[in-house]
Amino acid sequence: MNSKEKELLRLLEKDGRISVEKLSKMLDVSTEEVVGMIHKLEKAKVILGYSAIIDWNKVNETETVTAMIDVKVTPKRGVGFNEVAERIYRFKEVKALYLMSGTYDLSVVIEGKTMSEIARFVSEKLSTLDSVLSTTTHFQLKKYKHDGVVFEDRDEDHRIVVSP
Amino acid sequence: MTSFHKNKIAIGKLSNAVQRIKPSGIRRFFDLASTMDDVISLGVGEPDFTTPWNVREASIASLERGFTSYTANAGILELRIAVANYLKKFKTDYNPENEVVITVGASEGIDLALRAIINPGDEVLIVEPCFVSYAPLVSLVGGVPISVPTSIDYEFKVSAASVEDKITPKTKAILISFPNNPTGAVMGKDELEAVAQVVKKHDLLVISDEIYAELSYDNKHVSFPAIESMWERTILISGFSKAFAMTGWRLGYVAAPEPYAKAMLKIHQYAMMCASTMAQYAALEAIINGQEEMEEMVVSYRQRRNFFVKSLREIGLDCHLPGGAFYAFPSIVSTGLSSEEFAEQLLMEEKVAVVPGSVFGSGGEGHIRCSYATSMEQLEEAITRMNKFIQKHASK
């Protein structure tokens, strides 16, 4: 798979309704080529549907490992679990984060390139947070369903209107 | 005493140097645009991304650990080592111990470089159009800024002949910046080598502001000190603002042969002491772990550049394809308006803020600077409004 096709996928993943004309301009290829690329990707079942959910496992060199981590934490007075939760979900490796009932508090879904990358995240970033008491990491062996894509609201533009 | 009289006394005491400097032409557009609602701004000279979270978090962690004191004057050694390692990707080699100084933005770096090498009366060649601070900073140190204009005919690159044209016995240095703000121009190895020949022949120094190095879209950036026999003649200026979306942190660096680095450090230690400690820890995270996110930002700029430049051409504005930075610099000559008239009328009539090319020095007239570091929705709306504006003025 070439890099133009990968770039196209990333754009569609963000906006499944983006027009062919716009894609053609952004990618610097003709509209015919955009249509051809989309058609080819559809046929290869890389694009599975038009909510633009993409199976990255069908794209070379982009395999990922997913882990779900049970985390026990100490809540803080006044902010409860929210503060530590925010601290964790802001890491871009974290795909989903839930506050759970039961034997642990937070369920963290992590995606990485390799198992060791995830292990490093758990040992260096997650376990070292002050509020974290313990972690239990479960690696996913096979992905059946995936809806963990979080689209954060675009940050407000704080920039001054004209600057050098 | 009235404030008029108080101010009159104060104005009489100002230095000649500061009185000679003209206020930036950008200021007027800022004042105009900031009073209006619903303005689409293509006038912003900074990324539209927020600093990546891992970088912000590293700074928070440094505060939590109590790293709130001064650092070494040249900056924390870990960061200088990281900068030196990073610069190797541009085929330049600096010793982090004595050839790298962490500064308060690339802006301080430019000031340090000029203060370290310019004697009163020395001429400094400035390749224009360019960032608005170069000529004033040269004047402030008593130097004489000499403009070397570039033009659309050579895609706003600087030719060896145009440099040689301006050289006098008083010429001390040349200040260049590619990828360029405001033109987006980039220069390849051969083109830089031609300039290097002139630099060598006339025994000049080079201040190379490469703050936009990472934002090169079609070819890999060529760093000036990597050109043969230019390392020893170059003061390299760069920073974290553009590549890592860290403008507000004010963190940059200079890299140069030891005598220059030492001289700049001397000034920096008296004038600034050291760059902000928490910003340095943020920058350390950015330079070590921020590569991937930076590359994603570069892809996004490239897509928007492609979209915006093609759209400008469609609405009838000539525009060269800018190879770097995040500015398009279309010609507005076809409208019969000056760049200032165009920018002012566009703002008033269609509420789109752009910056007239004339504020960036000679060669800029006839063009406007449009920053495409804004959302696709805003870019599309800007194009719609600009099209309306051009249609209206064409039919007059």
UniProtKB/TrEMBL annotation, chain A:
GO function terms (MF aspect): DNA binding
Protein name: DNA-binding Lrp family transcriptional regulator
InterPro entries (UniProt xref): AsnC-type_HTH_dom, Dimeric_a/b-barrel, HTH-Siroheme_Decarb, Tscrpt_reg_AsnC-like, Tscrpt_reg_AsnC/Lrp_C, WH-like_DNA-bd_sf, WH_DNA-bd_sf
Keyword Manganese: no
One protein family per Pfam: AsnC_trans_reg
Entry keyword set: DNA-binding, Transcription, Transcription regulation
Domain HTH asnC-type span(s) in chain numbering: 1-62
Highest rank taxon of the organism: Bacteria
PROSITE patterns: HTH_ASNC_2
Species for this entry: Evansella vedderi
TrEMBL record, chain B:
The entry's keywords: Aminotransferase, Pyridoxal phosphate, Transferase
Ranges of residues in domain Aminotransferase class I/classII large: 38-385
PROSITE patterns: AA_TRANSFER_CLASS_1
Protein name: Aminotransferase
Listed cofactors: pyridoxal 5'-phosphate
A GO term, aspect molecular function: transaminase activity
EC number(s) reported in the record: 2.6.1.-
Pfam families (alphabetical): Aminotran_1_2
Top class in the EC scheme: transferase
Family membership noted in the UniProt record: Belongs to the class-I pyridoxal-phosphate-dependent aminotransferase family.
